[in-house]
Amino acid sequence: MNRNLGLNFLSNRKRDVSPQARQETVTEQRYKEIKNKLNIIKTSGQEFYNVSIDDMEYVRNLGSGAFGQVTQQKFKKTKELMAVKCMHRSGDEEEEKRIITDCFVILDTHTHPNIVNCYGIITHENSVYICMEVMPTCLHDLIHENLKSGIEEIYVGKLIVGILDGLIYLKSKNYMHRDVKPSNMLINYDGVIKLCDFGITGQLIDSKIISNGKGCLLYLAPERIESVTTYDSRSDVWSLGITIYEMVKGMHPYGDENTGFELLARIKEGPAPYLKENEASDELRQFVGRCLEKNVEKRAKYKELEEHPLIQTFRGRHVDVASWIQELLVDF
Asked: Is 179 considered catalytic here?
């Protein structure tokens, strides 16, 4: 049994100073920091050591994605329910990097209220299990299963505040999510929205990203399609703008494209999506417009968005998102 998360691809590698090598050095440093934190579960005010997957009891399947399957499991020692993301290791170099990145970033950021909470990480043979809090839904399912005509602006505004706070916190830790989209935004019964899935999160070096990990094409910023060597968190700002558009309209602005080629061509060459006057308030339309500026040099940075009147209004406004969510998810 191998209960260690290794870095086989780092052995026998010559050191150089290329952007790729710098990113690999970051990955190696991350591994060194997390290896002593594995197989420890922190919950209910206690720490449990040498935890194995046998300490979990399967309850039900919660879903799966490109990077792993998520199940609901009961931690036998406390009877607490957890969402457990299982990632199988095949030995592929990029896969190893992604798994280590996912583990490192969530351990480093999960205490923020808008980042999904992590209880710990378990390794077993060739699998890695990230144990997280159970969240009843994600923003994607909320939109496309419950609110196909879009979300009321009063709730959109409050949710944007939470998403933005999570992204700004990642930036303060020198991270860029790089896969900002509704399916990576979870919502709990208290109405709190939280970012998740950090497998392709990039390390900001001098405020720039030097690696080329791609997120979902539907949310990809124009400059990332153009294969720009370096880019910054304004690419995530574009993805935030697309997400807000989807929240308001109940549909994706590029959802009718049939092929990846058509989609990329439209993002790169076509006009930026926008909200019409009858679809949102002036403040919300202006906010989305600042996010969906095709010229990255003119696009808003987080500081501008944080100071935008829309954010200032909803940050200080009481909105009962909890009751709204609970009513929508009454059958969960």
From this structure: yes
What percent of the chain is predicted at pLDDT more than 70?
86
Q: Which of 177, 252, 158 has its CA nearest to residue 215?
A: 177
Please name the residue that has the structure tokens 């290896």: 35
Percentages helix, strand, coil for the chain (3-state, rounded to 5) are 40, 20, 40
User: Exposure of 231 by Cβ count < 10 A (0-12 exposed, 13-18 middle, 19+ buried)?
Assistant: buried
Catalytic residue among 102, 179, 232, 236: 179
The predicted model scores a pTM of 0.90
Q: pLDDT at residue 214 above 80?
A: no
What is the DSSP pairing of strand 127-132 with strand 137-138?
Answer: unpaired
Judge contact between 264 and 258, C-beta under 8 A.
no
CA pair distance 92, 104, nearest whole angstrom = 18
**Angstrom distance (rounded) from CA 272 to CA 27:** 35
Q: Give 197 or 284, the one with higher predicted confidence.
A: 284
Q: Using CA atoms, how far apart are residues 247 and 233, in angstroms rounded to an integer? A: 21
State whether residue 87 is helix, strand or coil.
strand
User: Token pair of 324, please?
Assistant: 């709204």
- 182 CB burial (10 A radius; 0-12, 13-18, 19+): buried
Q: Are 243 and 180 in contact (CB under 8 A)?
A: yes
Distance between CA atoms of residues 27 and 136, nearest Å: 32
DSSP 201-241: PEEEETTEE-S-----GGG--HHHHTT-S-B-THHHHHHHH
Contact status, residue 191 vs residue 322, Cβ threshold 8 Å: yes
In the structure encoding, which two tokens stand for residue 310, read together?
Answer: 């829309």
What domains can be seen in the chain, in order of their start residue? 8-132 (3.30.200.20), 137-328 (1.10.510.10)
pLDDT beyond 70 at 322: yes
